[in-house]
Amino acid sequence: MSSAAEQIVAACRGQSLTVATAESLTAGLVASALADVPGASAVLLGGVVAYSSQVKASVLGVSADLLERAGSVDAQVARQMAAGARRRLHADIAVSTTGVAGPEPHDGKPVGTVFIGLADGAGSISRGFRFTGDRAEIRAQACAQALAMLGGHVARTRR
């Protein structure tokens, strides 16, 4: 993961882009991976660990109706989390993670279900994944995929 994080920080520095995170199941792993890179302070503005639905709604602005209807493990929730972090922290780009690391299903979703969101000035997207392994392995895979999505987006962004 350090190589991906290093590439993201370098690319963002080169384009004067700032990044924020909104993390549920990864609980700060994505922000930590970025912060481990020397010079990350020029890029990483901060992150929100929004483990509870209440924090997703009150801090990140995720729709309470959506959370009630779909639960916290949902593609639209991931998009709204990323958009909320971007807005709240005044970042150019934000990435979010929400999902089920286990050991039990959550909101009717099986263990390993993960959604990763990405938001920039043009809008937000999300992708769904189904990871396998134990709790730590699922969280690590989610972090790695969030970094991969963020890195791919930054590589395609031209300022």
TrEMBL record:
Name of the molecule in the record: Nicotinamide-nucleotide amidohydrolase PncC
Entries under Pfam families matching the protein: CinA
Keywords from the named record: Hydrolase
Superkingdom field: Bacteria
NCBIfam families: PncC_domain
Matching InterPro entries: CinA-like_C (IPR036653), CinA_C (IPR008136)
Coiled coil (UniProt feature): none
Gene3D superfamilies reported for this sequence: CinA-like
GO MF entries: hydrolase activity
Domain CinA C-terminal, first and last residues per copy: 3-150
